[in-house]
Amino acid sequence: MSRIWPQVSTPERTLHLIGDNHYGANVPTTAKPTTRGPKIINDLGSPLIPDVAAHVFLGDNVNDGLTSQDADFLAYQAQFPGTKITALGGHDFWNGVRTPAAAAAALGMSGVSYVQDLGFLKVAVLGCDSTDAFGSMILNAPGSGGQIDWLDDTLASDPDTPYAVAFHQPLNDTVGRDAPADQFRSIDAGFFNSRDADLRTVIGARSNLRLWLSGHTHTPTYDTALASVETIGGNTIGCVNGSSPFYNHSTGITTFEPIRSVYVTYLDDSGGERIEVRFRDHGARRWGEGIATSYADLSTVQRAVTIPLEA
Amino acid sequence: MPTRTPGTLPPGAYVAKSSLDVIASIEELTQVVPFATVTATTTAAAWIAPFPCKIVAASLLSYGANIPASTVNYWSVTLRKLVNNAGTVTSSVIAVKTSRSDTGQAVTGKADWNFDNVPFDPVAQNLAKGDVLDVLWGTVGAPPQWTAPLLVFRYEPSS
Asked: Distance from B156 to chain A by nearest Cα, in Å?
């Protein structure tokens, strides 16, 4: 019996992206987050899965913003080894049951927005300024002292350090841009952020912003734009979506959907600045299906992709 | 969880790969067990652990017609660990999957019916040398038979 080396080439520069967990969702047993989460933990115990720089939880950590759901999520999250980074999503204060700040505090975050220094990269976790009766993530306009200003100030004050932004919602027209309608797509209303033009202004002006990490769309890992390179203003960045271990299609919760997550490695050496992206199916315990080159032929999936961060 | 030192490859060693040039991700050992056709509630021994190990994944196949999902006529298939302690056999459930239409999955003939999304008991999945893995096919109502079922499971050596 032969075995291969782990496919994550540089784990100390790798972020493990875990999209929308939705702890507390009342769904059939085999689809429940409380069933699927332990499969991830069990898989991470495999001797061939490397420890990584951080596990990044990209929002919608719980389903209805309830304290009881927080407890289940936090108990699950605590089982991930090493550094954990948590971002907020709309479901963390769903239907306005609590403020974003209250959700952040309940989930152990130091604020709705904060910076995590990983040495090779800083992660700017971006939250929102307010919510409404539906649990929307509302960002205030630039110049109002809100989260967009916080992001711009953070990037401006540390211009020589590469940053990734972890924000629940993707930039418009990135992930899922060519996807069929049975997926949540960033081109659809409600599935990209509410101030895309303002955020793009910040991105274009701050060349130390290198990665935009998102959740929200539950995108299956074979999406042709799950990871992409985008030139915004004068800045070229990588946009990577963390998929979701919960379910992946807008048509509803499929009981036996793969339990997906994404590994992204940020490299900047003699080989150039680039990201490597890999895909894990924690249920099947394998490096799973990845980005397809064409929706017309999903057999073209790439199980590891390297994307240069160059215009 | 112990800290591991993985076998890292040099940065840049990976380039975009197509499905044609990716090698299999073989991360555990694999065992294949054929069974006789199952028509009613049945237990059958599958394996004796040759050394301490952890059962981490399993798939079944029915080499016959489909078994439709149903809430009335369905199978409940249980992977169990049997421990014989001086003649006293105790069983513990590793994982259960059904063909119920609401919480389980239909069995497509001659296709993978796996336990990928089913929780494995973190204690029971660990076998000591000499522990037995068995399969319990339990019926509710009168579901169609499992035809010459094949079990493929994966395991990791453990200490």
From this structure: 8
Among B124, B133, B122, smallest CA distance to B60 is for B133
The answer to whether residues B25 and A287 touch, using CB atoms and an 8 Å cutoff, is yes
- Interface size A-B, in CB pairs within 8 Å, comes to 124
CB nearest A10 (choices: B8, B28, B29): B8
Look at residue B18 in the predicted model and tell me its pLDDT. 39
Look up residue A238 and give its two tokens. 């990588």
Whether residues A287 and B8 touch (CB distance < 8 A) is answered with no
User: How many whole angstroms separate alpha carbon B26 and alpha carbon A83?
Assistant: 28
Tell me the Cα Rg of chain B.
Answer: 18
Distance from CA of B99 to the nearest CA of A (A): 12
Q: In angstroms, what CA-CA distances link B130 with B12, B48, B87, B133?
A: 45, 6, 13, 10
Amino acid at B23: I
SS3 B115: coil
Where residue A30 falls among pLDDT bands split at 50, 70, 90? confident
Q: Looking at this predicted complex, what is its ipTM?
A: 0.82
Contacting residues for B50 by C-beta, under 8 A, at least 6 apart: B129
- Residue B51's CB is within 10 A of a number of other CB atoms, namely 12
How many Å lie between the alpha carbon of B35 and the closest alpha carbon of chain A? 23
Could you tell me which of A240, A237, A275 has the C-alpha nearest to residue A261?
A: A240
- Residue A237 and residue A230 in contact, taking contact as beta carbons nearer than 8 Å: yes
The predicted-structure confidence for B137-157, as pLDDT tens digits, reads as follows 999 999 999 999 999 999 998
Count the Cβ atoms, other than its own, within 10 Å of residue A45: 16
Residue B13: the pLDDT is 35
Are B6 and A11 in contact by the 8 Å Cβ rule? The answer is yes
Residues of B within 8 A of A44 (CB-CB) are 1
Interface of B with A (CB under 8 A): 1, 3-4, 6-19, 22-30, 56-57, 97, 102-105, 114, 116-120, 122, 154, 156
**Could you tell me if B52 and B126 are in contact, meaning their C-beta atoms sit under 8 angstroms apart?**
yes
Site from A1, A2, A10, A55 to mutate, B interface, most B CB atoms within 10 angstroms: A10
Question: Could you read off the pLDDT of A80-125 as tens digits, one per residue?
Answer: 999 999 999 999 999 889 999 999 999 999 999 999 999 999 999 9
CA distance A204 to chain B (A): 27
